[in-house]
């Protein structure tokens, strides 16, 4: 195991980790020469490069034109038709993959299921036919609010088969958050479960669905999977059990080709305003990007057991639990529950028992494991692992080194993958058999991706300098719009830097051109690898009748990357409330992930003369630092002084 002294020297030396000769030899892209050749080819003619990747998929009808780019709106593989579910399932049924495990699943209580490609195909066809009988047609939106069970993937693939865009809502979100997302997408069917298992307890999902759907008149049908078996009430005419819905449904469901630009899914993410954005992804380009990156970044082979720990409620679960690996005919391991239940070695126990070979998780999880201690993984034989990955936030070198040693046994390359809900798939990442890695850096953009660190005018900044992380050319997996709001799409992503997609992240490159992500530059905080909008949390707080104003900022948190501090002022004459009550208000409005760690009551907030809250100062205070920088625009020095004084008490 590593210790801090080792890390300091490592950073000073700028040590790099090269893939072993053995790993490189067996890899899809092995060694410098192969990597350079791929990068040269992609740089020379990126559109042609992506066409070659698209040809690796199964198309019902070829495209007429690879890219139609009318800034900022892109269409990829125009005129082409394909079926995503046929790409993930049907095309594997012709050869030996038919009877290979597609999904190996374990529930939190320890129950297990394995579905071969043939079995998964059958379940998807049957369920797609059931959805058809319930009135689902191509273009209809379907909301999915499910625990991590095989049926969650079945539901997604069935929607894809029918060309009905799904909107998966993370099952940790509250009823109110679910309601907003159902309404915004205009979903007419909701697929959910009675509940799911988490930390030994049942999460009552059906109750949340009932509360949400009561305010969604457009919802016609609710399909409920029986997972936990707890008592739920079923509404006549609206609710139907999954097992009843599939009764007598045929296993024959032809996979018709859908237009390459048909919406495949909507996924809501936080932006710098209070309202979540429905990020829209379409069919041909998205799958091309997800399949290509899954194959090369995770070096997927026929014999791999790939475990991405993300929930299907996040984009990582879409691209690297379902679509990317299944398009490659890989075996996916899926787990329902919490990482430390019933014991702190649950993950390592499952890796050993299922022979997981490639493991992909978030730095926040790794930090939690570091804290628990190396004795838990040490109890298990983790020699099946050959490759590790991280995503969601920058990984600190200490956690990287621990991951490398305690989990990877010092022999597994680590791919630190930078991407976003909006990018659809991985953008900046090592190729494990070729790219030398440096702990804490996602290395360089993948072949075909033109990401750069630029200034406000879009000019590349010199190596070593910081700037804005932008993408200078369209790529197949890019979001196509914000659902129902193309203007927001344009202003959010394409108005800050001329001609570029702006990621919202700051970054710098080093002397070798490696990218180091510096975090968000907008009003978005990254808590445990998930983006949360400070404005959204603020609007939840001011939804409380006694709160006048709220300002939410991030503070450094050893485990979660960032924690949430809320500064709150009360309405004049209002009865005091406890911070617990305000925290609960946020949990109810959004979900437990957005619950503030700290609530600080204050008489006033530091503002500029024009009335803008000076978050920079609040961030300093929340981080336990003396507010620094320019305060010449501050209206009321007394407000700041009072907050500081409260801190020093
Ligand atoms: C934001 C995107 C798409 C994966 C899950 C998060 C941060 C993501 C990294 C990384 C440093 C990272 C960025 C990005 N981020 N991966 N490897 N290194 N930062 O998806 O919720 O859309 O958040 O997560 O700030 O903009 P998301």
Question: What is this structure, in a nutshell?
Answer:
The protein has 649 residues and is α/β, with parallel strands linked by helices. Among the domains are: 118-257, Rossmann fold (3-Layer(aba) Sandwich); 524-648, GMP Synthetase, Chain A, domain 3. 32% of the residues lie in helices and 23% in strands.
Description:
This protein has 649 residues and is an alpha/beta fold. Among the domains are: 118-257, Rossmann fold (3-Layer(aba) Sandwich); 524-648, 2-Layer Sandwich (GMP Synthetase, Chain A, domain 3). It has 21 helices and 30 strands. The strands form eight sheets. Strands 12-11-8-6-7-14-15-23 form an eight-stranded mixed β-sheet, with helices on both faces. Helix 3 packs across helix 4, helix 6 (117-133) packs across helix 7 and helix 14 (363-372) crosses helix 16 (397-407). The radius of gyration is 24 Å and the shape is globular.
DSSP helix count? Answer: 21
Could you describe the largest sheet, including whether it forms a barrel? 8 strands, mixed
Provide the structure class.
alpha/beta
CATH architecture of the domain at 118-257: 3-Layer(aba) Sandwich
């Amino acid at each position: 195991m590593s210790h801090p002294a080792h890390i300091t020297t490592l950073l000073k030396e700028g040590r790099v980790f090269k893939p072993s000769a053995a790993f490189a030899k067996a890899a899809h892209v092995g060694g410098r020469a192969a990597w350079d050749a791929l990068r040269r080819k992609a740089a020379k003619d990126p559109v042609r490069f992506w066409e070659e990747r698209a040809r690796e998929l199964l198309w019902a009808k070829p495209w007429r034109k690879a890219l139609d780019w009318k800034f900022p709106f892109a269409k990829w593989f125009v005129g082409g038709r394909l079926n995503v579910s046929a790409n993930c399932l049907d095309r594997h049924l012709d050869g030996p993959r038919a009877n290979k495990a597609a999904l190996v699943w374990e529930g939190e209580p320890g129950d297990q299921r394995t579905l071969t490609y043939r079995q998964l195909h059958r379940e998807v066809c049957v369920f797609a036919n059931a959805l058809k009988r319930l009135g689902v047609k191509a273009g209809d939106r379907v909301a999915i609010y499910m625990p991590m069970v095989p049926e969650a993937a079945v539901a997604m693939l069935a929607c894809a088969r029918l060309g009905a865009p799904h909107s998966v809502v993370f099952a940790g979100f509250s009823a109110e958050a679910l309601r907003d997302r159902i309404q915004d997408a205009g979903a007419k069917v909701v697929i959910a479960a009675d509940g799911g298992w988490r930390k030994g307890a049942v999460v009552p999902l059906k109750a949340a669905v009932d509360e949400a759907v009561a305010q969604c008149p457009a919802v016609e049908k609710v399909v409920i999977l029986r997972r936990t078996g707890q008592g739920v009430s079923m509404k006549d005419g609206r609710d139907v059990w999954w097992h009843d819905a599939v009764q007598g449904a045929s296993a024959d469901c032809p996979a018709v080709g859908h237009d390459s630009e048909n919406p495949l899914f909507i996924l809501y993410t936080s932006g710098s305003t209070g309202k979540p954005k429905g990020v829209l992804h379409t069919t041909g380009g998205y799958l091309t990007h997800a399949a290509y990156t899954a194959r090369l970044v995770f070096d997927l082979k026929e014999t791999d057991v790939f475990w991405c720990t993300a929930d299907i409620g996040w984009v990582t679960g879409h691209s690297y639990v379902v679509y990317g690996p299944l398009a490659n005919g890989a075996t996916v391991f899926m787990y329902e529950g919490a990482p430390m239940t019933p014991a702190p070695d649950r993950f390592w126990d499952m890796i050993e028992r299922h022979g997981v070979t490639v493991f992909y998780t978030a730095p926040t999880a790794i930090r939690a494991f570091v804290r628990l201690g190396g004795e838990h993984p040490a109890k298990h034989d983790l020699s099946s692992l050959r490759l590790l990955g991280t995503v969601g936030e920058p990984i600190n070198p200490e956690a990287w080194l621990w991951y490398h040693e305690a989990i990877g046994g010092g022999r597994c390359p680590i791919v630190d993958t930078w991407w976003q809900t909006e990018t659809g798939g991985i953008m900046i990442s090592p190729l494990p058999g070729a790219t030398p890695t440096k702990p804490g850096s996602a290395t360089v953009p993948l072949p075909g991706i033109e990401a750069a660190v630029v200034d406000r005018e879009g000019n590349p900044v010199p190596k070593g300098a910081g700037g804005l992380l932008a993408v200078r050319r369209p790529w197949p997996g890019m979001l196509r719009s914000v659902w129902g709001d193309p203007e927001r799409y344009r202003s959010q992503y394409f108005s800050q830097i001329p001609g570029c997609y702006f990621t919202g992240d700051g970054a710098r490159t080093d002397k070798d051109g490696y990218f180091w992500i510096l975090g968000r530059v907008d009003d978005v905080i990254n808590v445990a690898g998930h983006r949360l909008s400070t404005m959204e949390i603020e609007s939840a707080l001011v939804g409380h009748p006694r709160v006048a104003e709220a300002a939410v900022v991030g503070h450094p948190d050893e485990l979660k990357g960032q924690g949430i501090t809320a500064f709150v002022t009360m309405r004049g004459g209002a009865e005091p409330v406890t911070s617990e009550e305000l925290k609960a208000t946020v949990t109810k409005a959004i979900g437990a992930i957005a619950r503030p760690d700290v609530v600080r009551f204050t008489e006033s907030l530091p503002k500029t003369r024009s009335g803008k809250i000076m978050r920079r100062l609040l961030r300093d205070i929340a981080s336990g630092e003396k507010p620094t920088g320019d305060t010449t625009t501050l209206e009321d020095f007394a407000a700041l002084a009072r907050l500081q004084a409260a801190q020093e008490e």
